[in-house]
Amino acid sequence: GCSDSDKKQGQARRAVPVAVAKAETGSVPVSIQAVGNVEAFQSVAIRTQVGGMITEQRVRDGQEVAAGDVLFVLDQRSFQSALKEAQGKLERDQAQLKKAEDDLTRYTGLKQKDVVSQQQFDQAQTDAKSLRGSIKLSEAQIEQARLQMEYSVIRAPIPGRVGSVLVNVGNVIKANDDRNLLVINQVQPIYVSFSVPEQYLAAITSRLGGQPLEVLAYVGGDSGDPEKGELAAVDNSVDRATGTIRLKGLFRNANKRLWPGLFARVTLNLANRENVLTVPSTAVQQGLQGSFVYVVGDKNVAEFRLVETGGAVGDRFVVTKGLEPGETVVVDGHVRLAPGVPVEAKPAPAGIPAKSAPAGGQAKPGQEGAS
Fold it and tell me: How is the chain split among helix, strand and coil, in percent rounded to 5?
């Protein structure tokens, strides 16, 4: 009987191996999570302003273009003919005006000598004035013909990426055709549009005059570093149906991870709270009495401690009550623990989060930001 009792006491005294980390203070963001859509910074549907047959196509599907790049060239022969015709009319009118002005000068001298009648003099004035008007009309026709020539070369109005080319070489298109030739989307920079509950509007607008508010975007299954941008626009009205306000974040999109049409998980960081106590999320356990942690003191004994948390920030929990900065908490090995059990404490391995949230850190999407 005594030997069995000794074994039980030995097992009770045997230290349970656990991984531990410190409860630390740091800076955590006050943030809002939402789901948004990626939108092009600018989007232009290319259409024609003049009619004709497409003779050149200098762009292909998915091509990157710069503002001013030639996309299509239309048959220019009719425009060239119209330009030459207008130039010919101008030269004719200029020659006729020269003769009319010479006649008017001569008639003016003869009129003073009463050699010509008033009617002949008035006719000379009218002819000269009419030809001056004809010259202005010819100059306008030349300008119009040159403009038509310019319109026959279709250029990219913005930089961006071309979608599908919808009309190819050999097709005849009419002026102001309702068909799109292609669509260009500018993706650098790029917008992410998202909505937040109206109760956050006052907090957002109160910070608009200061430093730009940081917006983080996670796309698809990407769990790496988010794209970082800033709040660019706040809608001018609240959606009555949903009680939300529409916002837009602007991103440089240097690596082109954001693409128009994608869904994105968005975090809007409003501010940072200083000196907030946090512990690794694996330290906080749930029991019948609520959230609790095991604290390891100087005697390496597990102490059961109820705590109150204030939300998750990344891979850590904010602790608002029940812990002091610098206390050691168990982050792995809870299964064999009970209050008063001796432990063999080891620092948390690399797989267990043990670092406090850095200043300016972000709340991971899908989790409630600290508030």
Answer: 25, 40, 35
Q: Which two tokens stand for residue 225?
A: 């570093």
35 and 86 both lie in a single domain:
no
Q: Which residue has the higher pLDDT, 187 or 200?
A: 187
pLDDT at 4: 52
* Gap between the Cα atoms of 369 and 146, Å rounded: 60
Residues 114 and 256 in one domain: no
**281: burial class by Cβ within 10 Å (0-12, 13-18, 19+)?**
middle
What string of DSSP letters covers 55-80? EEE---TT-EE-TT-EEEEE--HHHH
One domain, residues 23 and 116: no
Strand partners, 184: 44, 162
Instruction: Tell me: cis bond preceding 189? Omega within 30 of 0 counts.
Output: yes
Domain presence at residue 354: no
146-172: burial string, b at 16+ Cβ within 10 Å, e else: eebbebbebbbebbbbbbebebeeeee
Strands 244-251 and 160-162: unpaired
In this structure, the answer to whether residues 324 and 241 fall within a common structural domain is yes
Same domain, 143 and 158: no
d(CA 16, CA 22): 18
Cα separation, 180 vs 45, in Å, equals: 6
Task: Classify burial at 339, counting beta carbons within 10 Å of its beta carbon; exposed 0-12, middle 13-18, buried 19 or more.
Answer: exposed
Same domain? For 227 and 333 the reply is yes
What phi and psi values does residue 370 have, to the nearest 5 degrees? -65, 140
Q: Is the dihedral of CA 53, 58, 64, 67 positive or negative?
A: negative
Contact in structure between 251 and 39 (CB atoms under 8 Å): no
Encode pLDDT of 145-168 as tens digits. Answer: 999 999 999 999 999 999 999 999
Alpha-carbon gap, residue 214 to 267, rounded angstroms:
8
Cβ neighbours, 10 Å, residue 320:
14
CATH number at residue 145: 1.10.287
**Would you state the structure tokens that stand for residue 195, as one six-digit string?**
């909505």
Least confident range from 83-92, 103-112, 247-256, 336-345: namely 103-112
Q: What is the pLDDT of residue 152?
A: 94
